[in-house]
Amino acid sequence: MNSKEIKGIVTDWRVATLIVLVVISVFAIYPHFDSNGNLATNLQYGLDLQQGSWIQLEFKGEVVGFTTDQPLDDFITELSTRLDTEVNLVDETHIEVRKYYTQAELEPVFSAAGGKLTTYSQGVSKSTAETAKLVLENKINSFGTKDAKVQVLTGMNNVARYVRIELAGVDMNQAQEIVGKQGKFEIRVQMVGNETEHVLFGNAITSVGNPEKESRNGVWGVPFTLSEEGAIALQQAAIKSGLTTNPEDHYLIMILDNKTVFNAPMADDAAAKLQTSPNRIWSASTGTGDAGLVAANALNIHLRAGALPVAVSIAGSGGVTAPLGERYKMMALLAGIFALLTVAFVVYYRYREPGIVLPMILINASEILILLGFITLIRFQLDLPTIAGLIAVLGTGIDQLVIITDEILHEGKVPSPNLYLKRLSRALGIIVTAAATVFIAMAPLALMDLSTLKGFAIITILGVLVGVIITRPAYGKIIMEILSK
Fold it and tell me: Which of 96, 145, 179, 318 minimizes the number of CB atoms within 10 Å of its CB?
């Protein structure tokens, strides 16, 4: 081809779009050599391809079906009192108990409260599980751990029993320190003597500021904000306990995993204001000097991420060592190269024409490059299922390019431009139908809580979309120009 013909191909909007996306992808991936002389990229590797750990936590609660003749509010209040925990209404026939009890233990309590237990599922409601997920993500971020994945495992009955946390680049001891001890955060108020009463759980805390030192007296404190419901709950508890008139005898107590992390009286002026109106903005004082700062930093983490609405226990754990992760990474790279070479050999064996084989392989490789650039931009982790999805895209992509080529060369010769457009449209129609089938097949895997298959499904769907929208039309233009020669 002469320069004019090449310019005509490159300036076509389909080919130009492909080239622009490839360039953007290369910049996004940014292959370069690090300070040690090793090849590095911006790709985010998952737990399979680098050192890391995973922990699976089990929610210690239940979602149970019930029937009752009592008013719902009275029935739930009675259950909460008898079970000594928070009980929430999920829907008209199901409630959530945020403490672990067996079915045999719950049945007599329900009968005594004026109801009957009809179904029993260990775990928590979907909304509670999502709250726990956000709390765990905040906990992880507060420790500076970036490459983390929190996945709630929800059953078909919308009850979540487990949550899986994957921490790439973190060993097992550190992983257990970050999330394994994560428990339930609660604020209580001292009533009479040593008796305390529940005020609110940590999910009522909407924002937490960094530790601050008061210039007036040098006392360290942690500012935080309550939700409207949390502020009202605190006001009601303060009035009921007598804190608003006598704060020195009614301490506020913050508890994480049944361990007191803060225990102090409320300031006189703040207590007096609660008598007339709720207050959403607070600051918990922790003392002066270095000890006060250490306590403030610890309390800051508890307030930010200690607010799991239900207790958890470690149900399973595991990890990948650094040498094993590097081995997996190399094997994955070799698998991708081998797949590309195998595809090139098969296509060459079929057509015996380098002018056809080269564009096919380049288009196929560009599709993988665009996908890698896209997952880099959205910080999607590259793990073994994702790599399997990329190889699947490689195979299905070459199938579709073969369909286009065979359709154009239906009679063994290059058709006229009008006939070419008809045949190309027919080939693209077949490809779109096949792509829709793949999309429908992969959609359930992408939407369901199957963490090991989700990456495979998402990459396969993205590959189908990139192929249909970008690479197939560009290939149609390129191959026509080549075949016409």
Answer: 318
